[in-house]
Amino acid sequence: EIVLTQSPDFQSVTPREKVTITCRASQSVGTNLHWYQQKPDQSPKLLIKYASQSLSGVPSTFSGSGSGTDFTLTITSLEAEDAATYYCHQSSSLPLTFGGGTKVEIK
Amino acid sequence: EVQLVESGGGLVKPGGSLGLSCQASGLTFSNAWMSWVRQAPGKGLEWVGRIKSKTAGGTTDYGEPVKGRFTISRDDSKTTLYLQMNSLKIEDTAVYYCTIDWGAAGLGYWGQGTLVTVSS
Lengths: 107, 120
What we know:
By secondary structure, chain A is mainly beta. In chain A, 0% of the residues lie in helices and 50% in strands. In chain A, strands 2, 4, 5, 6, 9, 10 and 11 form a seven-stranded mixed sheet that branches. A four-stranded antiparallel sheet of chain A has the order 1-3-8-7, with no helix packed on it. In chain A, strand 4 and strand 5 form a beta hairpin. Chain A is globular and about 35 Å long. The mean pLDDT of chain A is 97. By secondary structure, chain B is an all-beta fold. The N and C termini of chain B lie far apart (40 Å). Chains A and B meet through strand 5 and strand 10 of A and strand 5 and strand 10 of B.
């Protein structure tokens, strides 16, 4: 099983500040790494697929990078509506696995 | 617009059984791979299992915690996905989400989830 380790677990951020979330895989997943946003009391939403491809409608402030075992989700300028928990997810091999999540709070 | 609507959640005793459904619309369901993902209260996401489209073999795969106890099936004529859960344990308590599984491209759409509580 591929283990995904996210850091940090929690981040409290001022609006317009930059946010960086990392996800490390226990073995290479190529670019089969995806990012989800889950707002309180909502279901998760796919933001970025294949490490760096933003889904339609995702604000340009969100970007992803990385390949192999090290990945990053960046929010260049945090807005209040971005308060959520962010999860990475690998589809390289079964079982599909998720990172533990990073909760982003607005200061 | 793609919509996934789960139903069937509720309270069940340990050792009991429960069946969930997921009604899909807005897509060619017969071509879709589907996965169930669960989230225990206050916890992260856990993949339960997947069923491929019939053209891809219609095969199923499961996460280790549910293997042998849960069964995923589909009825393409009703555009409905199912999750039959047997021998339920307290640790199966979670919100269960139905998702459209894009294979290598991730889980593209999610339903609103249905809560399953296993408690005596």
